[in-house]
Design a protein that fits this description.
mainly alpha, single chain
Length: 34
């Protein structure tokens, strides 16, 4: 059970990091695109 909760929290942290990276990429893309 503990391992499952750890994995779930890890996935959530990964998703958060991915979302942040996506936002950064979007900003850089817009800045370089125009």
């Amino acid at each position: 059970m503990k391992a499952g909760s750890e994995r779930r929290s890890g996935v959530r942290r990964q998703a958060l990091r991915y979302r942040e990276a996506c936002r950064k990429d979007k900003m850089t893309y817009e800045r370089t695109g125009r």
